[in-house]
Amino acid sequence: MLAGLRRRLRLRPRAPPTEPSGAQRPARPCRLFVGANWKCALADVAQADALVDAVRVGWAEGKPTLADVELCLCPPHVLLGRVVERAGAHVRVGAQNVHESVAPLAPGTGVTTAALLRAVGCEWVVLGHSDRRNTYGETDALIADKAHDCLGAGLAINLTVGETRAQRDAGVAIGTVVAQVSAVAARVPEGAWSRVVIAYEPVWAVGAGATPCTPDETQRVHAEIRAWLRAHVGDDAARACRIVYTGSVTEANAESYARLSEVDGFVVGRAGLDAAALLSICQTLVRCKALNA
Question: In CATH, what number is assigned to the domain containing residue 184?
Fold first, then answer.
């Protein structure tokens, strides 16, 4: 596996990507971010071990190229401690969910608090994913409570926002996304925005066979999110917060999004289960940003 990984990670020269017409690259001093949401797609512990080992070794071999990327692996809860131990010093680990605190130390069956996640070595938590919103009925208010708990416990949050096909067709896509951002923004302490990543997930563009969101539309939505942050929270928050794209990102299409000035990285699903593909996407991101600098 590692020999094949090394072959695939050799950088190949490509034509410089071009920025969409009319786009301007804002000056934002932030590190790029790539998250890998493994969901519950792993077959067993051996697969998880092999995957995280390949990522760790590939990451070490990719330095210093990959030093500008913060990479976060998000395994199922039962594997968190194991992945933390194997990931190494340069790869972050995040949880896919957290329980909201109703009362201090309130008991709850089958839940995990932000404090416990931090205790086992987690640094990030995924919040607001469409699976949680649409399948489990999580509301903006509940997600905002979770965000507040996580940030208060010293964790960083990967907030997923995005519209469904019905909302897009109804012309309320931006309104939906802004409402989701606004609910959480109200609970983010001043100075904590460097620990917030907003992942735009057009729900209609996710899944096998789905039509990806076009780069132009992605740029427009990301710009709307940053403009809202600047207008309603402040310039510091708009600069510190990273806005990433998560909509069926692959090795094949990563470059078309990485060249966008308003895209600070990605969260990937299926591509995150392949160490070579994941690290290749990270390298594509770094290369495109360097060419557009």
Answer: 3.20.20.70
Containing structural domain, residue 116: 29-102+109-292
List 70, 100, 201, 262, catalytic entry: 201
Q: Are 65 and 75 in contact (CB under 8 A)?
A: no
Q: Dump pLDDT digits (tens) for 178-220.
A: 999 999 999 999 999 999 999 999 999 987 777 889 999 999 9
- Which residues are CB-neighbours of 139 under 8 A, at least 6 positions away? 133
Q: Helical H runs in the chain?
A: 2-8, 45-62, 80-87, 114-119, 130, 140-152, 165-169, 173-185, 215-232, 235-240, 254-258, 275-292
Q: State pTM to two decimals.
A: 0.89
Q: For this structure, is 90 an active site residue? A: no
Sign of CA dihedral 173, 169, 247, 222: negative
State yes or no: is 129 an active-site residue: yes
Question: Is residue 82 exposed (0-12), middle (13-18) or buried (19+ Cβ within 10 Å)?
Answer: middle
Burial 4-17 (b: 16+ CB within 10 A, else e): ebeeebeeeeeeeb
Catalytic residue from among 129, 138, 148, 262: 129
pLDDT per position as a tens digit, 102-117: 556 566 788 899 999 9
Count of domains forming the chain: 1
Q: Single out the residue of 283, 274, 276 nearest to residue 255, CA to CA.
A: 283
Strand partners, 36: 73, 268
Q: Which helix (H) or strand (E) holds 243?
A: strand 242-245
- Residue of 2, 13, 3 lying closest to 283 (CA atoms): 13
Nearest 10 degrees: CA dihedral of 137, 210, 31, 125? 20
